[in-house]
Amino acid sequence: MPQPTKPRPGVFALRARPAADTELEWFFNRAEGEMGMRSTYLLTLSRHRTYALELSPEDAAEAAHAYRQIRGWLLAIGDSDAGVLQCAYETRGWPTPLFDELGRLTGVVVRLACALDPWPPQRAQQQAIEQARAEELSAQCTTCRGFSFGPLVRLRREAERRFALASHAYAVVRGHRPCVVRAS
What angle do CA 77, 80, 86 make, to 5 degrees? Predict the structure, then answer.
């Protein structure tokens, strides 16, 4: 008797739910700042700021609680799914033509394109490899517009599949709870 397979997410699950989208964008890009871990770079811009540099202890505690909750949900899903979500939500300086073409999937497509490259242990070197590959993909995207995106089409399809599965895994773990991040 064949083993029952895990149901695949439907078309409706191809994008993150609004609460999950907000939480993941916040977690990968703004959490540290809202927990009071501001960089010295922000301090140098203090005379130009339009936001309060001081956090109340209550705001920092609320942000730390949200961070722990989201981190727990990410740890509850597979490492591969959590990595896909990080690639999708972490803000990076991707080439504009590539980002315009792929949007949220840009980081996932770039990481998939790097799959066969030697992968150094240092994050800065990994990011340099990713940026170089992103530049190559951007050139292909611009050069092949109107004809065929060749490998970019296959990478995009695989990125869509992985993003859908990762978003679904996160949604299942977090359940139907309200968003844990305060709207800013």
Answer: 85
